[in-house]
Here is the input.
Amino acid sequence: MRYFILCMCSMFSILLLSGCGESAVEQNPPPPVQSDNSNYDGPAAQTEAIQQFKLSFWDNVASNDRCGACHTAGDTAPYFARNDDINLAYAAALPVVDLSDVSKSLVVTKVAGGHNCWLASDSACADTISQWLRNWASTTEAEAATITLVAPVIREPGSSKSLPEDSGLFSSSVYPLLRQHCVACHAPNAPQVQSPFFADENVSAAYQASQRLINLDSPELSRLVRRLADEFHNCWSDCANDAAVMLQAITDIADNVVVSELDPQLVPSKALRLDDGVVASSGGRFESNQIAFYQFKTGEGSIAYDTSGVEPAANLTMQGDIDWITGWGIKINQGRAQASTQSSKKLSQLMTATGEMSVEAWLIPANVSQMGPAAIVSYAGSATERNFTLGQSLYNYDFLLRRGASGADGLPAFSTADADELLQASLQHVVITHDPVKGQRIYVNGADSGVSAAPEAIRNWDDSYALMVGNEANGNRQWQGSVRMLALHNKALTAEQIGQNYAVGVGQKFYLLFSIADLIALPESYIVFEVAQFDEYSYLFNTPYVINLNGDSLPQDLNISGMAIGINGKEASIGQAWIKRQFSLAASTDLSQAQVLSEQGTIIAAERGVASDEFFLSFGQIGQFTNVRTGISVATQQITMQADQSADIGLRTFAKINASMSALTGVAQQQTAVANTYQTIRRQLPAADSIETFVSAQQMAVTQLGIAYCNAAINDDAIRNTWFAGINFNTSPDQTYTAAKKSQFLQQLLDQLMPLSASSVALRNDAEAELSALINQLSQCTGSCAPERSATIAKAACTSVLASAELLLQ
Here is the structure.
């Protein structure tokens, strides 16, 4: 984050102020303000292609704070931002752009390298320019989705060091430095919370958070060292000295770690790190009507950039406990990421103009127990006023939209079917579309969910709301999970376009070319994998194929079997999807084209992080080389027969629980608050009567339903007076629950909610003792308790009995 300090300086003084942008204040007054270079009054575009260049690219880069300050006629070539003749500007731009692969355009690579970026992130500037170029290319030529493979640097799989599972070495070397100097930010309870929490008071948690920042093979390349040495981040004395101290601490760990030598029996390919691979193109997405786009590439800081290229950029500022995910994404633990109301206004303007919209996201919900609905993406002013919200309720995706006959809250929600359980705690592509003619639809992983809502027009949107991710404005609709990509469109995507975007995938992907040239005696031969960081703990290896970059054919038959993935000098112990597979390619097979070995993929656990993990392939057989493995195998699945005997007790299922609570309390199942609670948590209640299926989440649902019934019962004058004749709940607890009145209250409560005397019923004396202790505890207030607290205590005691095992078990 950049901080700008307003410096008030005397006009007669010459001051050198390092705090004012770290530069000297000039003696001479500033030059007159020049007119904005983007004000164009030259000749008209001669062709439609030139007009598209102006609208998509020139209008965005020609301002003085971007390229218009230099790349104008007579200033700095090339003159693609000149404002005297758009036709000449077009001619000047063509040599520095590549519309068939915009990522290779010179204007993109220059900005990505730090040239005149107008944002705090070079990658965000490069992505934004790339989007402008794609918009330009969309009516001239499509961006190529093909990848040009380039031979990697040959690296032998060698010895490597891995951090030990135990945190002992870390706690005696690096951790004291982090705990002493970084605790003000990098701890969960810090005054200014910043992830990762490598200064956590829990040394095990701190060790886990710091592992990807430590490089044992090259300690000087560790992120903890580079932040001090190169970026001067939070130095506690002299940055060079502090970096040296941190370097020595990491070196102490490295010196005490045993090296993992490569097993000489292995038949290995050459080795690669992730950044040795060829970056997969991000092209192929349908983006024609995209008005906000977040890829979460930055990886640090507190801003997630909108790189849609549609101004103004609705950048998201992260607030609370939010972590960056390596491989692009954010993980929301608590808090939200929010755009300004001013930049969010474009959503209202552009979506209401078309009457259509699509919310597209790649998500990983943290669990399937979130309710509310928890707000994943919301353009809203509060939990009750919104333009739209994409939310989660247990296994359902919900969509709330201000439209037609709905109120300001966008209710009723449009949701996936309960029985389908489409929302899962895994990576999912979710698209919500709204069309005033075709209505609303929800797509999950490229497939139509099968539910739809009747067509209604978008109406009465409020353009003063803000776009938020992870919560609502008042903070009471917290969603937990990871967002890998978010795109907002002002048109309803078609099923074909959604399928296209799903097929492209998400996140940073590479093609890793593992050299097997010396194993099959054919130069420039490789087995290629598409590899991506699946999450911060693992890598996804997918679809291996054989190729020869010289375009040669196989001189003889090639048999491959027992192929395994190795990491950091050893074969991975899990995730070996191809170790039992055999592949055969006949002599004369043309390797100029990819020869796919398998469409299968697998997950490999990360060890030292993306900058340091080194991969290779090993083989049971390839060509003339063989290796009889003894150290790795595929575990046999153990199947255990269910015991003949089952428990003597069971669970009441959801409908029985609801009916039993209604019968005991006298509150109708149709009572509004009770019915709403039941519908919300019904799927969290037990669905089977076997005691072996019980989990803690079900008890929480029983408790919630019990609270609803007890709240309704105590608030109902007739029910309350029937239960507790002679007890006044309008006085303070010390008067309501005197010794005599408390005994009377407990007898009446237990008579009502524990009416049976079966052998399984708990002893009344034990229940009374527990409830008496609860009432005593809740009756203790600082000073004196308010009268209304007496009714609250009654509800708590009621819930304790109603939601207990007495009702749940049968």
Q: What stands out?
A: Residues 1-34, 139-146, 633-641 have pLDDT under 50 and may be disordered. DSSP finds 21 helices and 30 strands in the chain. Residues 696-715 form the longest helix (20 residues).
